[in-house]
Amino acid sequence: MNLPARCLAVLCALGWGTASALAADFDCPRVTVIVPYPAGGAADVAARLVADRLEAGLKKSFVIENRPGATGNIGTAAVVNAKPDGCTLLVNAAVLATFPSSFSKLGFDPVKDLAPVGGIGVTPTLLVAPKSLPADDLKGLVQLSRQRPDGLSFSTAGYGLLQHLAVEEMAQRTGGKFVHVVYKGGAQAATDLIAARVDFGSFAAGSVIQFVKGGDLKPLAVVQPIRSDLMPEVATIAEQGLPGLDAGVHFMLYAPAATPADVISLLNGELNKIIGDPALKARFASIGYDPTALTPDAAAAIMRKTGEVWAPLIKRLNIKLD
Known about the structure:
single chain, alpha/beta, D-Maltodextrin-Binding Protein, domain 2, six-stranded mixed sheet, five-stranded mixed sheet, globular
């Protein structure tokens, strides 16, 4: 009887010691979560939802700090250069991994200088069109573009975004004739698309999903390998004959690269509890996110793959964002 009791005591001591070590390494008066975009956008809302729950779970003060500018690079650089103690974190997208190709003077290496903590959510890329467009799927879109002398015009919320790159890659693979009409932001782009001033659009799902559900736009495809829970009735681009193309925008939580592994592990464990909460899934759906729990290694792998997949296209098109 004494041996099990001693074992239990040892296990408890080990558990207490591990928790104490983690707490000692993660000794922050407060945790600052930098969102490198203006307040009120989907990334900001998602960050606040996650930060509120991290605060409750870890019993620490979490503060959101918006630092927009330079396509998110100002806020990102602030985290890259922060003390690697877990007290300064970043919410940003894995598309960061393409920035060494699209910025000539970035000043940091997103893959080497940031440590992914885990996943927050994926914003799917959705191809949409006015109801009047005589094409209802990818095949019809490509065929129609070949029939028209000037091809088909398409809109996005910005030059060089994954939504733009996805259509350029589609054109390359299918022989479709697509002409990019650049907008600065999704609101005007969506308005002009509804009015059929542009033939079709490629957008983050959150910016157009309300127009699809309201009947103002029709969906053509989701640009990712599997269907999105946000719009499960919409076929993927892979189902429509174009596999291997994923333009889902993965938002993640990051720390500076040298942050201790045990701090990353502690944050990841709590983050994954949050992301798995059904109540959060409902809130994320309202801003166009599919919640995605990831290990740090899986998040890092997505970062690397994003850079590897899209960098050649960025270089071929000579896209420069600075």
